[in-house]
């Protein structure tokens, strides 16, 4: 039986008792976003909207995208990647399980020096793929040409973001190329393998950290319910 979305307490200044809000609303206010499924248009639109909103609200505080993603749609994933480059707030990416295919492209798209993998995370890159096509031959050829363009574009992105030559990326993408966190760091996909205190310092604490149940001046409301819920 599904448990639904967990709720956490928060307390507004002047209130005698804490209220309860959805876990994700509270975490969004702390600027933590989650990609924990295959990339599709729905999750892409949600993440794009949250990044734009939170960046406009405060461009001086980093956004954090935690990734556990097996891949997904290329166009939807590119929308997330491009928005990460567009917003003024820097975007930190963290692989917390698996970042495969389009998930790894989003991981490598984080701000330089702010791309992290958990010690037991896995990263996988490969060439774009499409479902079998049974249309007319001419359309099959056109489809193949478009896939080649996408592959070249994705290869160039990996090369630019990792500092590796395009030919090496091209060879690595010939098959499903799995990497441990340390191998991904050596490959330039992540900058740091999170471990112990060093990992938590990356997120920063102090002015930007808040108690789950706020008290005094340090408590504030969550992202408003509605389009940001």
From TrEMBL:
Name used for this protein in its record? ATP-dependent Clp protease proteolytic subunit
The lineage, from the top, is: Eukaryota, Viridiplantae, Streptophyta, Embryophyta, Tracheophyta
Catalytic reaction equation(s): Hydrolysis of proteins to small peptides in the presence of ATP and magnesium. alpha-casein is the usual test substrate. In the absence of ATP, only oligopeptides shorter than five residues are hydrolyzed (such as succinyl-Leu-Tyr-|-NHMec, and Leu-Tyr-Leu-|-Tyr-Trp, in which cleavage of the -Tyr-|-Leu- and -Tyr-|-Trp bonds also occurs)
- Where is region (Disordered) located? 205-229
Write down the superkingdom of origin.
Eukaryota
Checking Pfam families in the record gives: CLP_protease
Enzyme class of the recorded protein, top EC level: hydrolase
Keywords per UniProt: Chloroplast, Hydrolase, Plastid, Protease, Serine protease
The residues forming the signal peptide are none
Q: How does it assemble?
A: Component of the chloroplastic Clp protease core complex.
Q: Which GO terms describe its biological process?
A: protein quality control for misfolded or incompletely synthesized proteins
Q: Name one GO cellular component term.
A: chloroplast stroma
Any one GO MF term held by the record is: serine-type endopeptidase activity
Free-text function comment from the UniProt entry: Cleaves peptides in various proteins in a process that requires ATP hydrolysis. Has a chymotrypsin-like activity. Plays a major role in the degradation of misfolded proteins.
* Main location class: plastid
Q: Which SUPFAM superfamilies match?
A: ClpP/crotonase
Q: What is annotated as the active site? A: 101 (nucleophile), 101, 126
Q: Which family does it belong to?
A: Belongs to the peptidase S14 family.
EC number(s): the record gives 3.4.21.92
Localization, per the record, is:
Plastid, Chloroplast stroma
């Amino acid at each position: 039986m599904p448990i639904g979305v967990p709720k956490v307490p928060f307390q507004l200044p002047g209130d005698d008792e804490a209220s309860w809000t959805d876990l994700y609303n509270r975490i969004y206010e702390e600027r933590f976003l989650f990609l924990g499924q295959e990339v599709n248009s729905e999750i892409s639109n949600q993440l794009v909207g949250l990044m734009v909103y939170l960046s406009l609200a405060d461009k001086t505080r980093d956004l954090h995208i935690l990734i556990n993603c097996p891949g997904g749609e290329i166009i939807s994933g590119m929308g997330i990647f491009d928005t990460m480059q567009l917003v003024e707030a820097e975007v930190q990416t963290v692989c917390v399980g698996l970042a495969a295919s389009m998930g790894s492209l989003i991981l490598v798209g984080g701000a330089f020096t702010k791309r992290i993998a958990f010690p037991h995370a896995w990263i996988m890159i490969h060439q774009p793929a499409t479902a079998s096509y049974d249309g007319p031959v001419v359309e099959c050829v056109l489809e193949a040409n478009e896939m080649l363009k996408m592959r070249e574009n994705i290869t160039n992105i990996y090369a630019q973001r990792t500092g590796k030559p395009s030919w090496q990326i091209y060879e690595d993408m010939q098959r499903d190329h799995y990497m441990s966190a340390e191998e991904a760091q050596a490959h330039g996909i992540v900058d740091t393998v999170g471990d112990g205190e060093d990992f938590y310092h990356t997120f920063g604490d102090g002015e930007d950290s808040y108690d789950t149940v706020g008290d005094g001046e340090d408590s504030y409301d969550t992202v408003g319910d509605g389009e940001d819920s």
